[in-house]
Design brief:
Blueprint lengths: L12 H4 L2 H11 L2 H4 L4 H11 L12 H12 L5 H6 L19 H7 L4 H10 L15 H10 L6 H18 L3
Helix pairs in contact: 5-10, 7-9, 8-10
Length: 177
């Protein structure tokens, strides 16, 4: 088969999920006619038509806030709990408030008293297409954090784009990162 890359054998699941191995697998899974396009511009044009729509909400808005949003989604944020789990911080406790609680995603997005004003704007701006509040009371903290980090599955892109822009505005206004 033309333009097929050899995927190295992996002894660990960590290596199997690495960027190199994942990229090679994704390349090999592309249609052959797409892999055989001889120039980069032609490839990019054709590839964009194959791009999954589920990635669209993650694009756009503030670049810096988007990076921090993605880091939270991936578990590599600069929140104390993530830093502590990676051995980069002495304590997971929130240094922004006096609560004594771990600075988790739920704490940062929903509980930290330092960000109450920014949070009220986040909740207010998370409106559905008719202007009704996305009923945040129907979610427990874990489900609400999942919603804010990953969006609503099965919803139109516009809903998730609005939601993510609200999250990006919140991240920017807290000046936490």
């Amino acid at each position: 088969m033309a333009n097929v890359m050899v995927v190295p054998s992996c002894n660990t699941s960590l290596r199997q999920g690495s960027v190199l191995v994942d990229s090679l697998r994704r390349w090999n899974n592309l249609d052959r006619d797409l892999r055989d396009i001889p120039n980069i511009n032609g490839f990019k044009t054709r590839f964009k038509s194959h791009w999954p729509t589920s990635y669209k909400p993650y694009m756009g808005g503030s670049r810096i806030a988007g990076v921090h949003h993605t880091r939270m989604r991936l578990g590599f944020s600069q929140l104390n709990r993530d830093l502590y789990l990676r051995g980069c911080e002495a304590s997971p406790i929130c240094s922004q408030c006096q609560s004594g609680l771990d600075e988790t995603y739920a704490h940062y997005l929903l509980k930290c008293s330092k960000y109450d004003l920014a949070r009220s704007v986040l909740i207010f701006s998370s409106l559905d297409s008719e202007g009704h509040p996305t009923s945040v009371n129907q979610f427990d903290d874990e489900a609400l954090v999942h919603l804010l980090l990953k969006g609503l599955v099965g919803e139109d892109n516009l809903t998730n784009v609005r939601l993510f822009r609200s999250v990006h505005t919140y991240i920017s206004s807290t000046k936490r990162f």
